[in-house]
Structures are given as structure tokens and as C-alpha cells.
Amino acid sequence: MEEKKSVLKAGASMLRDYLVLVMIAFLVVITAIIEPKFLSGSNLVNIMRQFGPLIMVSLGMTFVIIGGFIDLSVAGTINLVAVVTISLIQPLGQLPALLIGLALGIVCGTLNSILILSSGALTQAEALFITFGMSTVYSALALLYSHGSTMHFWDISASKSVFEAIGGGNIGFFSVSFVIFLVLLAILWIFQSKTADGRAICLTGGNKTAARLSGIQISRSIVEIYVICGFMAAVGAIVLFSRITTAAPVIGAGYETSAILAVVVGGTTLKGGKGSVLRTVMGVLLVVLMSNCLDLLGVSSYMQYAVKGAILMFAIWLDNRKQA
Q1: Quick one: which of 8, 71, 198, 282 has the most CB atoms within 10 Å?
Q2: Residues 176-212: pLDDT tens digits?
């Protein structure tokens, strides 16, 4: 009897650990049966392109949440980076515009960390309100910079080949944005699992007092996680406007909640200290597949928001149960 209970307990634990994979498999099978177009080559390529912007933002968000914080400013960062980058293609050229866009993301992340450190906000709740305020500031700057207008690729006479390749180019079967994701994923995984700074971020998120007593520079970890998040939000912004060929000062709306959803569903605990960029990939895949499936099945966007909210609440509930 005891042996049977232990087997059932181990099975339940394994199901919780790999629930995302089970949900992905279930979603794919059911949707493929109901809508055969789901497995068509064109739809798989479309999924791969939808995957790009969200995975970039979510990978950056993973480090912030592992570090015990939160970042709601990514939406504002995306808005600002998108309109600034696309506006600089004509006067400066592609490469300078691209580099300035990435640098702007790093600046936004650095400003977030400076505000958090200078205010002594070392809890997730405090960081939530600070970064929410910064998101409003970045979005307002994007609106002022663009005069509230949408910028289009077809209004730019200069060469846009780099951005066109990012948005719609392929390297073999894979899209360029997917290859960029693979490269950045490898770099971030090595940083997280193989470097002292990566392990320090996990320790900081797990217990800041213990980390400080262990000689870890808490301030350095905080700066690193927000710089990474700002940089990845900038990459996501560039991939996004390159794919849709337009940049509006509200282009990043909703990406902060979708990124948090993907990270938490992927298994990174909101309490900090535990998580992995590899598990975030599974979370993003589930979110993207879910959106694609619901679109194919004709489900309204309003209902999709409700489904995402329900999944986020379930993921948080499950995370708390696992911690207990």
C-alpha cells in the first residue's frame, strides 16, 4: 500500500513538472483533428514568426523573475525602441539604427535598476509599481517622439534589407528571427547555468539576505537582470516591427502580461530563485500555440484574453501548491 502511494505521488510530481509539455501535446493533437490546416507548412512558418517577439521579451523577463523582481516596463520599452529605430533608418542607415535601438533598450533597463536601487525597493511589489510607472514614461516618450503617428516601411526610401530579412527572411527552413532566438537562447543559457553572475542572480532571488551574507553583490545582480530584460525587449521590438512592417507608439501593448504568463507557465516561480530560460521556451510555445489554435478555430480576441487570464491564475495556483 505504501509503495503504491509513493508511486502515485511520484507520478503526480512528474505530471506537475512536465504539465506544459502535456498541455502542448494535447493542444496540438486536438487542434490538428478539428482544423487540419493547423499542421500545414504555411501555418507552421506563421507560428515560428509569431514566436519571435514574445520569446525575446520572455527570456529577458525570466531573469527578472528569477532574481525576485518583476518588470512591467517592457511594453513601454518596446514602444519607444520601435518608433526610434524605424525613424532612424532613413537618416542614419540600417546598422546605426539597429545599434541605437538595442542601446536604447539597455538604457531603459539601466534606468529601471537605478530607480529600484536608489529607492531601496527590494521587493517584487515595489519593483512592480516602479516599472509600471517607467512603462508609462517610455510610452509617453514614444508618443511624443512619433507625434502619435504610425510609421511604415513603405515611407522609407533607404534600404531596409536587414529589417526585411529579420521580419520575413529564411535560413533554410528556419526564419531569421528564429535563428536569432536560438543564438540568444544559447548565450543566455550559458550565462545562467555556467557563470558566477548567473548563479548569483538565482541566489539573490531565492534569499537576498543570505546572498548578501554570502558575499554576493545584490546591486550588481539587480542591474544585470534589468539590463538583460531591457536589451531583450529591444530585440523583441525590432523583430516585431520588422515582421509587421509598421511601428506605432503602442505596438508593445500587452507584451508584459504575455511574457509574465509564458515565464510562469514555463515553471519559473514568481517567488524568485528558481527557473530556467529553457523552460520559458516551453511556456512561450504553449502561449503562441494557444493563440494560433484559437485564431484558427475562430475564437474572439476577447475570449482569448479570458483564456490567458485563466491559465495565468492556474499557473500561479500550481506554483504556490508546488512551493507548499
Answers
A1: 71
A2: 888 999 999 999 999 999 999 999 999 999 888 888 8
How many residues would you count in the chain?
324
Domain span holding position 85: 53-323
* pLDDT per residue as tens digits for the range 73-97: 999 999 999 999 999 999 999 999 9
Per residue in 26-51, pLDDT (tens digit) is 877 887 887 777 777 777 777 777 78
**∠ CA 303-124-127 to the nearest 5 degrees?**
90
Ramachandran category for residue 230: left, alpha or beta (phi over 0 → left; psi -120 to 50 → alpha): alpha
Residue 112: exposed, middle, or buried by beta-carbon count in 10 A (0-12, 13-18, 19+)? buried
Tally of structural domains, the chain: 1
Is residue 48 one of the residues assigned to a domain?
A: no
Q: Is residue 16 part of a domain?
A: no
Q: How many CB atoms lie within 10 A of CB 47?
A: 16
Determine whether 124 is exposed, middle or buried from the number of CB atoms within 10 Å of its CB (0-12, 13-18, 19+). middle
Whole-angstrom Cα distance, residue 197 to residue 217? 10
d(CA 191, CA 185): 10
**C-alpha–C-alpha distance, residues 137 and 108, integer Å:** 10
